[in-house]
Every structure is written in C-alpha cells, then in structure tokens.
Amino acid sequence: MGIDSLNKSKLKISLSWSGGKDSAYALWKLQQDPDYTVSRLHTTFGETSKRVGMHGIHESLIEKQAEAIGLPLDKIYYPASGDNQAYEKAMDAYLDKLESEAIYHIAYGDIFLEDLKKYRENQLATRGFEGVFPLWGKDTEVLAEEFINSGFKTLICAADADKIDKAWVGKVFDRDFLTGLTQNIDPCGENGEFHTFCYEGPIFSDSMPVVLKEKISNTYKFENENGIKVEKKYWFQEIALKTT
C-alpha cells in the first residue's frame, strides 16, 4: 500500500521532534489543521550520548515532553561517528515501522533551508513517503513573535559561540533575546546559530519543571563547503528535570 491509496482527508503523520521551538510550533500548527493527524513523534539520538544532536538535550527530557504532549515517542539512534549512511539506514528501518502502521507522511519544522528540505524529500520519495513542512517559507521574525504570543516558553540550550554570547545560554527565548540579536543572526536560529528546549506551551498538558545546571563548551572539527578544515565552538546548557 502506498500514499495514493490512503484517504487524503485525514493524513497520519510522524513528526520529527527535536524538543525545540520549531518542532513544537510545527506540531501546534498541525494539531490545528483538519487535514492531518499527528500520530507519533520520532527523535534521533546519539547512540552513546543519548542526546539530541546539536541541542545536547538528554533523551529523558524528550521522553518527558512526549508524555506531556500525549503522543508515543519513537527513538532512533545513530553512531557517534556521524556516518550519514548509518543514519540513513536507521531512518530506513524506521520507515518500515511507519509503513506497517500505514503512516506515509513525516513532518518537519524546517523554515527556509532549501538543500535540507530537498534532501529530506528525496530520501522519503525513494520509499513512497512524503514530507510535510507546516512552517516552510514563513518569515522567521514573524514566526518568532507568533511562537511567543501563542504561550510557548523555551530555553536557549545550545549556541554558536561566535554568534551568541555565553550569557544568553540557558535564558528564555523571549523578546529581550530577540532584541539583542545582531542582524546577521536569524530570529529562529535557522542557520544553526542557536537551539532551544521547549518546556511549556499549548501542546503540553502541563509545564515541565526543569533546573539549569552547568554550562559547558564543545569544539567540533569539520570541513566547510570549500573543503577547508575549521573548528567551531558551541555553548551548551545542561538541563535536568526538577525533582521534588
């Protein structure tokens, strides 16, 4: 069975969930859209770290979010080497699972990164799946304001040390934060300038009690688009569930 044989009036979706504001707002938008039913969430974690990529958020926090949202969470692990083929193999296995449940659509919180969108669409198309992008093409300044106005609260959990001052890491994503951004930084951090962790909002049954621990830094070595080896430093805010 493929997507053409499904009832298009109510498409079932698995949402790619990072725990941050974009995936949270994408879920909120989809929940208000009569054409879709978000059936489950899925998150990719480091096989060893059990954390979300560049967000640095531990899977225990993601599990708590899913519980507060009221949707099942599927966890996909990738090797520490970051090997893309291994990642694609893991995702392919996940598509097998979705196919067995007649879910042929995956939603993402992407906004304007065209290369990433095309990559996702091409990978899905090889298996007869389609991507859904509820935030695509929206003005990021407008999106940031809408996110705040909708009652979401989120923390800056990671940031590019060259672009975001350490003092902002661990702070709430609010108008003060937006006002302090320089013009070369996207208001939604779509270019990877910063990442967030959402702990309150209309998609949650209750606010998540969290506590901020230490701030740490990590330096990554990679080749840029010109084949030049570079190093990038990032700040991370360690966040944990508050215990009574």
TrEMBL record:
Occurrences of domain Diphthamide synthase (ranges): 14-217
CDD domains reported in the protein's UniProt record: AANH_PF0828-like (cd01994)
Domain of life: Bacteria
Coiled-coil residue spans: none
Alphabetical list of NCBIfam families matching this protein: MJ0570_dom
Protein name: Diphthamide synthase domain-containing protein
